[in-house]
Amino acid sequence: MTDQNEPQLTRIQQINRERILEGALTAFSANGFRGATIDQIAEAAGLSKPNVLYYFGSKDEIHKTLLTALLDMWLAPMLNLNPDGDPLDEVLRYVRTKLHMSRDFPRESRLFAYEILQGAPHLSEILGGRLRLLVEDAVGILAGWIGSGRLASVDPHHLIFSIWALTQHYADFEVQVRAVLGPGHDPFAEAEIYLENMFRRMLEV
Q: Cross-referenced PROSITE patterns, in alphabetical order (predicted)?
């Protein structure tokens, strides 16, 4: 949310901010927060270092801004769980969506993984606040389905964790997955079939 007291950005300023965040995504996802530099971000954005620092006061500010925006995008599919929908269809749709996001946004997934592996210094408040509340809402929906006998009895928290782990693995460890499978394989297409079958067998009653 934008602070109402902040001046509105011009179109050029908005474009430059977006270029900086895109350049930061490239630098941070390749090198992590510690390894990335303002110079690398500026080069990836096609802007000068002073220009980058005009829009963002520090590397830390860029990183936090980027992570917050990415987390919003990453968590959005969980908001779409429909309590009135078919439980199995809703869970499988969530699995597919998370896998497709790993396929389409691998840098974003790796950046988030980097942050978590470092102890989430830039996201600790969000993870323990908004993320936790969002997960609790989803757990409530899943628990309702399980309690009414519409899904098999599983721990809702760990079901969500397993979906995250099994879908984001294909982005975070894509090089390893492709190396092991070898040429002629589409890891994400094959994973979609496998994961849908696995979760269907786990959850259907």
A: HTH_TETR_2 (PS50977)
